[in-house]
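Hi Y.,

Following your request, here is the sequence exactly as I used it, all 266 residues.
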Amino acid sequence: MPLYKSPNAAAPVLTQFSLKGKIAAVTGGARGIGLEIVRGLAEAGADVALMYTSSKNASETAAKIAQETGVRVEAFRCNVADRESTATVINQIAKEFGNGRLDVVVANAGNLRPYSLSRIHRGDMASQQFHGVMWTAQAAGKIFKHQGKGNLIITSSVQRHAGQHPTDPSCLQCLQGRRCPSGQESSMSSSPTTFWTTRTRNYGLPRMIVITTQPPERMEKWLSMIPGGRIADAAELKGAYVFLASDACCYMTGADIIIDGGYTLT
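Below is the corresponding structure, written out as tokens. Let me know if you'd prefer a different format.
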């Protein structure tokens, strides 16, 4: 199946970044990077299904973004660690929210602890949502194949490119998928490093969360490894996701955008 081509590739460049009329779904969309992805896609004109697992304020968050942007934003509860649940919710989004269509799916949900390869068990795989990207890609891919087009974007990790980090060096960053060929037309990913978000956990893997409760020496070590000299705000990522979701990158597939303040250069 050939890559989708914009009906007017020569259109003024800013119009190509518009997502007006597109239907998007974002897993892990109630907080952190996922919340900023939802906000960015909505600001660019897309109607967005905010998928979440346990956030108590997801519906209120979706309603607030909808009011601010003037597009439809609705919350859908989904445990992406469960294959059937993921397929059911994504199909529901396409059928009911998208009126039979789904253009963009962002596989962003994750909650990774720095497990060592020798200590991880099957239960950890499910509870930490290692399967989430695969089940999301699989469900989205079936819809995309039926439509003849679609766009899958995956939030990966900069640790795929730079293994050094002031935590357990054998953690399973290798499992963060860059591409999941499941019949969809386009598959791309974004690999961020540490970001300030409202979600704080006492873990050390820099992907979707940054640890505000870490010892000062660990934070200093992280900062010393980022040539940019600071930790980014999660909102600084949303522009990249808008680009990946837009017609401005129709010929881009299987690629990985690294946004890390120069971390991988060290």
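The beta strands are 23-26, 47-52, 73-77, 104-107, 151-155, 186-192, 195-196, 232-233, 256-259.

Thanks again,
Q.
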